[in-house]
Every structure is written in structure tokens, then in C-alpha cells.
Amino acid sequence: MTTFAYFNKFDMTKVQVRELVFEKFISREEIETAVQRVADDINRDFKGKNPLLLAILNGAFIFASDLMRKITIPCEISFVKFASYSGTSTTLKVKELIGVDEELRGRHIIIVEDIIDTGITMDKLLTDIQAKQPECVKVACFCFKPEAFQKVFPIDYIGMSISNDFIVGYGLDYNGQGRNLPDIYKIVKE
Ligand code: IMP
Ligand code: MG
After folding, report:
1. For 51-71, how does the pLDDT look when each residue is reduced to its tens digit (9 = 90+)?
2. Residue whose CA is at the smallest distance from ligand 1 atom 22
3. 167 in contact with ligand 1, CB cutoff 6 A
4. 14, 51, 55, 147: which could form a disulfide with 164 (CB 3.0–4.6 Å)?
């Protein structure tokens, strides 16, 4: 079976990722506008501060690379790796696969995440990072699902707030597949 079948190669209103069908939800143009808005805010807020972007692998790698190229002030990037999802839902447990190996003391940190759902992953990372005594920690995510959010930390930069539906594309996956879709798709409910 083809694991990544395009239903309509030309407009790609629907795609199949593994056995699930998804429909177009956020276009690449809307994504670009949202990323630019987040970058503009960061350029304004971190002027003269040399922030360290800390991107969460795997999902945030595409958002982080687009965002970083729109940041016009001096900045740096590093990566951590956490996993909490299995299939289309959270396991409610967060596994740390690659930890923070930078000196964070006194730095201005911007955590870069693809999506905040329950908030459990970010909550854990925030605790780990605060313990390393940075000057400040801000959170930037591309998508935020307010209806699923269970935590209380502030989210400083949000690309888009979305409904509580499972999505793929723009770095987001369904069991490893679908990250390479340039637009974002949401699951079609039967
Ligand atoms: P949280 O800990 O529940 O906030 O989940 C955060 C992580 O779950 C994200 O970094 C994603 O990797 C994954 N995730 C949450 N919602 C989705 C989704 O709709 N599609 C794909 N991955 C998701
Ligand atoms: Mg992720």
C-alpha cells in the first residue's frame, strides 16, 4: 500500500497519511503570514538580547527554521528532543530523548514548539529550563489547541489557535509520516 497517497495531486484538498484521511486546513500562505507575525514580535521584544531559540524535536524543526530565517536580530539555536504522542493522542507521559546541553544561565531563551496541546511537554521542559537559571524564558508555538490545554504557563507567541482536532503537515506527523506536507491538514472524522 502507498503510505502517502495524494488524492488529488494538483489541489491536494485531501491527503492520506498511513490509513487516515486528512483535509486541507491551513495553507502555506497563511502559515507564512503567521510565522512572520511571530518573528516581528520576537525582533521587537529581543532587540539587543541575542536570544537562544530552543526548538523541540522532531516536530518543531520546520517552524524553527522558517522562524529563525525571519528573525533579523542576532540569535542562536539549539535542540532538545521530547516525545509524548503515540498515534493520534497523547500518552500523558513525556519522554526526554535529548536533553539541554547548553549553558543557559543568564541567557534569553525562546522555546520553539510546533504545537501545544495538553501542555504537558512544555510544562516539563519549562521546569527543566528554569532550573538552569536563564535570564528569561518565553514560549513560541506555531499551533495552540486551547480546548486541550491543561496547564497554566503563559504562551508568549502563538502562530495560530486551532480547534481540538488532530493535524499533520508543516513538521507535524501521524506516527512519523506527513511532516513533509507544506500545508497543514486536519483529520477527517467519519
Ligand atoms: P502536549 O504535551 O500534549 O502539549 O503535546 C505536545 C506534542 O504532541 C507536540 O509537540 C506534538 O509533537 C504532539 N502533538 C500534539 N497535537 C498534535 C497534532 O494534532 N498532530 C501531531 N502531533 C501533535
Ligand atoms: Mg513535538
Report:
1. 999 999 999 999 999 999 999
2. 172
3. yes
4. 147
